Amino acid sequence: MTRIFEKPLYPYRRSTDQDRETPARKQVIVVGAGPVGLAAAIDLAQQDIPVLILDDNEKVSFGSRAICFSKRTLDIADRLGCGQELTEKGVQWNVGKVFFGDRQVYHFNLQPEAGHKRPAFINLQQYHLEHHLIKRVRALENAGAPIELRGRNKVTQASQHDDHVSLNIETPDGPYALECDWLIACDGAGSPMRQMLGLDFVGRVFEDNFLIADVVMDADFPKERWFWFDPPFNRGQSALLHKQPDGVWRIDLQLGWDINKDEEQKPQNVVARLKAMLGAHIDFELEWVSIYKFQCRRMERFRHNRVIFAGDAAHQVSPFGARGANSGLQDTDNLCWKLKLVIDGTAPETLLDSYDAERVFGADENILNSSRSTDFITPKSQISRILRDAVLDLSEHHGFARPMVNSGRLSVPCNYESSPLTGPDDLAGGPALTRPGAPCCDVPMAQGFLLENLGPGFSLLTMNATAPDAISEAGVSARRVKMDCDPVIRERFLGSADSAVYLVRPDHYIAARWGTFDETKICAAMRRAIGKEG
Hints:
Elements: E1 24-31, H1 35-46, E2 51-54, E3 68-70, H2 71-80, H3 83-89, E4 91-93, E5 95-100, E6 103-109, E7 121-123, H4 126-142, E8 147-150, E9 154-160, E10 165-171, E11 174-185, H5 192-196, E12 201-217, E13 225-229, E14 238-243, E15 248-256, H6 261-264, H7 267-278, E16 284-299, E17 303-304, E18 307-309, E19 315-316, H8 324-343, H9 351-377, H10 382-395, E20 425-426, H11 450-453, E21 458-463, E22 470-473, E23 476-482, H12 487-494, E24 500-504, E25 510-514, H13 519-529
Parallel strand pairs: 1-2, 1-11, 2-8, 5-13, 11-18, 20-25, 21-23
Antiparallel strand pairs: 3-7, 4-7, 5-6, 9-10, 10-11, 12-15, 12-16, 13-14, 14-15, 16-19, 17-18, 21-24, 22-23, 24-25
């Protein structure tokens, strides 16, 4: 059987742009057809912004790579039109277990409460995610949306001008040139686009090496995240086990600093390590093997005039915590509604600087958490190891120690409380969970769930408050969503208040909130949220 990653899904086809005497001018070009680039293009096309995706490949990624996708990512995927397909294909999980040596020291539940449409996480190989996003691109193309995906179109040169970007592109039929008003660089950690513009990362590279193995086997381990410190099968190191679809299991094994990578990746050596972990009686087949190092780095700025970087092209973190691909999807979710307003002339170009401010903040938060995880997983001194092991011992019976255990703080969306776009918090007694700057949480409603009832633009949530069906200001509109005050909504949105009004951005972040409807205050918050008023 041919696997998804073995066949071309967007093979090269000659374009009429290659026969032009002068370069064709595109509104937006996305470089890179990984999850981040595809998500950006789908988001823009759904808003009627013409977008072209260029990629030097014609297939989805090989190997699981990113596998853990958070509830926030699934909420974004719902807006992209493929959240249900991803959830059904993925292995859903909320529970994680931590082991020290040969014993379990504690477990955690990332979503203990009910009232969410999506689970805390799904496990899904990156190639399946890319496949579903490509299917969504094709569906949009067939529906007449302004989106195009070109495989085996490799960008070899880029130069910036005041009002556009010029590109040289290599294809099987030879080179051609394009221009675009805006370019979104989603071309991965090695980012040729970053190198073409003479830009680089700042941050840390950790010396420890980790082995990733995708293993096909029939095993009865539960749908949970299992993490070991100092297990019997990998003494002095760590290990991680995740279940994926199609009988594939993801195993991460810490190898240490001074290793021979070529030797460690030889199938016979990988198999020996896996048999020590799984048991000699377990039959399995290796699908993919790789060795990686932790890297916690980012670009100093993500926006460079008309070139905007997102995903791994802009920032890198260690895989423990699932912060890489999830934060990349949050990048595009933050960027695309702003780019739409700028292109339409509704918002000033400086609104894009808030993408830089908010997502650099998010990257720094991810880097901080990933660095702390790395330091806990791989202690750099004997004293640090003694302290780490004491915390693990205590966590088995003492709750106070468990928050100090760090096997990778799992990805959660960051808070934009300090963003220049975030407005006032005038809801006395309002819950901290839904304060301005926080992502809007989901709740069940009379029909479906809250997030699926929000439109593509701004939304005005009201609870026990009179307001018009919609309010318009500075070229944007906010549509009213009336919410009944049942116990779950009261807990998450009202707190001790009797009534509430929330302004929610297109990326479902809370821009501001009040106790009652006040048109003047809400209009001021809308202007602020699109960068027209500080």
